[in-house]
Amino acid sequence: MAEKAFNHLKQYLDTQIIGQSEFTKNILIALLADGHLLVEGPPGLAKTRAINALANGLEGDFHRIQFTPDLLPADLTGTDIYRPETGQFVFQQGPLFHNLILADEINRAPAKVQSALLEAMAEQQITVGNKTYKLPELFLVMATQNPIEQEGTYPLPEAQLDRFLMHLRIDYPEADIELEILRLTRGEALNNHVAKPTPLTQDSIFQARKDILNIHLAESLERYLVELIIATRFPQKYDSQLAEWIEYGASPRATIALDKCARAHAWLAGRDFVGPDDIQAVFHNCMRHRVLCSYEAEAEGMTADNILSRIVQLVPVP
């Protein structure tokens, strides 16, 4: 029953985000794996529309935060407001107290603002003064970065990037897809109405998360999954050239993320077991922000994706 509801939600997202089937699938994987997304792509590729469409299909609320250099942590978390009529301070919740958050152009804000968001992502709570406030149980952040403009930005440190479940990259659509986008937006402007699906309840999402953890993962595949991570830390075991390309490998948090995402990928495909293809399908998205390329790799024009593809080739599949 839950699989059917998620399939309907996937179909709805694909009608709203034309030509980005992999993107919409990965949004659902993040939702099922209880993680957060970092999405990198040029402006105008429906990143805001995607998270808004997801909010339309869920029992939850959505808030967009435009990150700018003058933003303060309190603009995200909220702050204590003095009420003169009562002589007391009352906490005013910030935009983080919503189920779905779009952190638009996260690298536009300084480090202290980024840290406030990343703390909320990791701990699912925020602290103001000497009080701690819990965030909603259903809490998903989709942060975006614009790869075109880097002037005046504050790049996220590698250690903080590790807090994101996946790092997705999207690019411009083909001509046929862009034609469909043009017709969709024209039709919406004429009708001024978008049919929304029956919202997916939060209880069904939490139940699906439990179901995913019960999916069968063979011991040999567990070891394969771990070996993929170990290959980023000790690449010399597999290839001397690979060792020159990797400065730092992935943490155990990457292992947990890869396991969750592979399970969610298999579940969305209607299977009750995880196969090697499921692990490989999410490997790049789970790892590209966790593997730090060396100077030699950059000098040779190697990217994290190139290195990860090499690892998949070298680590034997059971």
Provide structural commentary.
This protein folds into 2 domains: 2-191, Rossmann fold (3-Layer(aba) Sandwich), CATH 3.40.50; 208-314, Magnesium chelatase subunit I, C-Terminal domain (Helicase, Ruva Protein, domain 3, Orthogonal Bundle). The model has no long low-confidence stretch (mean pLDDT 90). The radius of gyration is 21 Å and the shape is globular. The chain has 318 residues and is an alpha/beta fold. It is built from 14 helices and 11 strands. The strands form 4 sheets. It has a 5-stranded parallel beta sheet with strand order 2-5-8-1-9. It has helices spanning 2-16, 21-33, 47-56, 74-77, 111-123, 158-161, 175-191, 202-213, 219-233, 240-245, 252-268, 276-287, 295-299, 304-314; strands at 37-40, 62-66, 78-83, 88-93, 100-104, 125-128, 131-134, 140-145, 166-169, 246-248, 292-293.
What's the SSE blueprint?
Elements (H helix, E strand, L loop, with lengths): L1 H15 L4 H13 L3 E4 L6 H10 L5 E5 L7 H4 E6 L4 E6 L6 E5 L6 H13 L1 E4 L2 E4 L5 E6 L12 H4 L4 E4 L5 H17 L10 H12 L5 H15 L6 H6 E3 L3 H17 L7 H12 L4 E2 L1 H5 L4 H11 L4
Parallel strand pairs: 1-8, 1-9, 2-5, 5-8
Antiparallel strand pairs: 3-4, 6-7, 10-11
Helix pairs in contact: 1-2, 1-3, 2-11, 9-11, 11-12, 12-14
Q: Determine the fraction of residues in helical runs and give it as a percent range.
A: 40-55%
CATH architecture verdict of the largest domain: 3-Layer(aba) Sandwich
Structural class: alpha/beta
Uncertain spans: none
CATH domain class of the largest domain = Alpha Beta
Biggest sheet, spatial arrangement of strands: 2-5-8-1-9
* Number of helices, counting only DSSP H or I runs of 4 residues or more: 14
Give the averaged pLDDT, no decimals. Answer: 90
- How much of the residues is beta strand, in percent? 15-25%
Please state the CA-atom Rg, rounded to the nearest Å.
Answer: 21 Å
Oligomer: single chain
How many strands in all? 11
Specify the CATH homologous superfamily of the largest domain. P-loop containing nucleotide triphosphate hydrolases
- Terminus-to-terminus distance: 32 Å
User: How many separate domains?
Assistant: 2
